[in-house]
Every structure is written in structure tokens, then in C-alpha cells.
Specification:
Layout lengths: L1 E5 L1 H7 L3 E4 L6 H12 L7 E4 L2 E3 L12 E5 L6
Length: 78
């Protein structure tokens, strides 16, 4: 199981702030696609962090038991 956390408009779209997901042997790209489809996140902009580090290349990422994944809204600086 991994811990998935949602922030800002992503939390609003999912109607939850966090959930646990059993990932088995699935690659992260497949898990991301499943979450996006389940909550219809296709139109929303977001970044993904795994274990508090932003991830830009999902193609080779494999999650492990106990990992934390966060869906973050776009950041604005100031």
C-alpha cells in the first residue's frame, strides 16, 4: 500500500485529502492514469511528488510499499 495525498483543487476534485492504494507490481505511470481517470483529473494542472520530491519522469518510476505520493496544485511564486 502507498499513501496518496491530495492538495488544493485536486483535493476538491477527489473530495478527499488522502487515501491508501494497493499498487502491487504496477508501474507508476499506470497508477497515475488510474487515479486521473477515477477522479477525472485530465483537465486539471498538477505536479506529483513521491516521498516529498517532485517527479517529472514517470516512465521508469516504480513505487514501493509505504511510499507517499502527493498531487500538488500549480505553485505561484512571489
Amino acid at each position: 500500500m502507498i499513501q496518496v495525498k491530495y492538495f488544493g483543487m485536486i483535493a476538491e476534485a477527489t473530495s478527499k485529502e488522502e487515501e491508501k492504494i494497493d499498487v502491487g507490481e504496477k508501474p507508476f505511470s499506470e497508477i497515475l492514469s488510474e487515479i486521473s481517470s477515477k477522479y477525472q483529473l485530465g483537465d486539471l494542472s498538477y505536479q506529483v511528488a513521491v516521498n516529498k520530491k517532485l517527479v517529472s519522469d514517470f516512465s521508469k518510476l516504480q513505487l514501493e510499499e509505504g511510499d507517499e505520493v502527493a498531487f500538488l496544485p500549480p505553485f505561484s511564486g512571489g
